[in-house]
Specification:
- This protein has 254 residues and is of the alpha+beta class.
- It has six helices and seven strands; from the N terminus they run ββαββααββααβα.
- It folds into two domains: 184 residues, no CATH class; 54 residues.
- The longest helix is centred in the middle third of the chain and has 24 residues.
- A three-stranded antiparallel β-sheet has the order 4-3-7, sandwiched between helices. Strands 1-2 form a two-stranded antiparallel sheet. The protein has a two-stranded antiparallel ribbon with strand order 5-6.
Length: 254
């Protein structure tokens, strides 16, 4: 990939099928804002950017325990008046929450997600409990295992159907239509920081300037993610999306 738009040792971007070229965004200019966010974490021990931090759901302590750390992202944008705005995102959930005060939202309606997943996940767990009581090689066990797998795969397809975003051309896009890598989308696609930040910017007509992502907390199990280190957008889930999500950003306020 071209190094255009990269922030020294990290990069954020990917290939765009629509215009048949890659799109990148700078990852260096946003680092001071990312360091300021780390300092806030260090001082306060929580991630409630608009409150007093008393809500335990937004405590950062679990990130240094068995749950381990998490990726966070900062996006610098320019609004229609030319003022710079700073957006914040976290990957996945924080202590079971998809949303937190002062942070951008996920790419789906949380209420619709919960309505969809709650009953099906209960069924899948019940099937798992039944499987545990059966001989692993029994015919009944094999049928149940296959049925559980099919139900899980169907649920994942229905979950991904909830994910959508408005691109910088003003078009509503489904996640699967924007994903360029062949095969099924990995679990968690669209839940990383960069897609959340770019989707929010496009929806609010903010022109992205620079995006930095860092890891905060106890190192992950592989040791590849370390506390307060900056990382590129992930190869498996983000890079196949980000080309489409960055396409047309130069036209905002143009």
């Amino acid at each position: 990939m071209s190094r255009q738009g990269r922030g020294r040792d990290t990069f954020c971007g990917g290939w765009c099928e629509s215009c048949q070229r890659p799109h990148f965004i700078d990852t260096w200019m946003a680092r001071p804002a990312a360091h300021a966010l780390m300092d806030f974490f260090d001082r306060h021990g929580h991630m409630d950017l608009t409150g007093d931090g008393r809500d335990e759901r937004f405590s950062l302590a679990p990130l240094f325990g068995p749950a381990r750390g998490k990726m966070f992202g900062v996006l610098l944008c320019r609004n229609s008046s030319g003022t710079t705005e700073t957006l914040y995102a976290f990957s996945g959930q924080i202590n079971g929450c998809w949303q937190a005060p002062g942070w951008v939202a996920p790419l789906f309606d949380v209420a619709a997600f919960n309505r969809l997943t709650a009953p099906v996940e209960q069924e899948i767990k019940a099937m798992g409990r039944e499987l545990a009581s059966l001989p692993s090689e029994s015919e009944t066990g094999q049928r149940l295992r296959k049925a559980r797998k099919e139900k899980s795969m169907q649920l994942m397809r229905e979950i991904f159907a909830l994910y959508c975003f408005v691109d910088f051309h003003g078009q509503l896009r489904q996640l699967g239509d924007a994903f360029t890598r062949p095969g099924n989308m990995p679990t968690g696609t669209g839940d990383c920081c960069a897609p959340k930040l770019l989707a929010h910017a496009a929806a609010h007509r903010l022109a992205p300037i620079s995006l930095a992502e860092f890891y905060y907390g106890r190192a992950n199990l592989s040791g590849r993610k370390q506390h307060k280190k900056f990382y590129s957008s992930c190869r498996e889930k983000c890079q196949p999306l980000l080309g489409a999500m960055l396409c047309g950003r130069e036209r905002v306020h143009g």
